[in-house]
Amino acid sequence: MTADLVLDHMHVPVEVGGRSRRARLTIERDGSLRLRAAGDVATDELRAFLASKRESIYKKLAEKEAVQHEPVTKELVEVVAGGELLVGGGVHGRVVTG
User: Fold this and answer.
1) Residue 8 or residue 86, greater confidence
2) Where are the domains of the chain?
3) How far is residue 25's CA from residue 36's CA, in Å, rounded to a whole number?
4) Less CB within 10 Å around the terminal CB: N or C of the chain?
5) What's the average model confidence in pLDDT over 41-46?
6) Can you tell me the distance from the alpha carbon of 98 to that of 96, in angstroms, rounded to the nearest whole number?
């Protein structure tokens, strides 16, 4: 059996099953929420549990959003020192103005 709860503007599906009285809140990779609890846990208890986790939920969603930005594109460049092409890591240079 599955029901839905609403926290602010987010719909949270509640999966009912198992014998544990603990509620388990999962934030999926796509940012969706899922709540799992035993069938004998009252809906009011689940709403209170969800409300108590509001700050943690928004914090985690903000972290996920910050990480999911476009990756930085890297550009390969050639470094020439004294007419020779330098290849590999650990290349150090000195800026000369003149």
Assistant:
1) 8
2) 2-67
3) 7
4) C
5) 88
6) 6
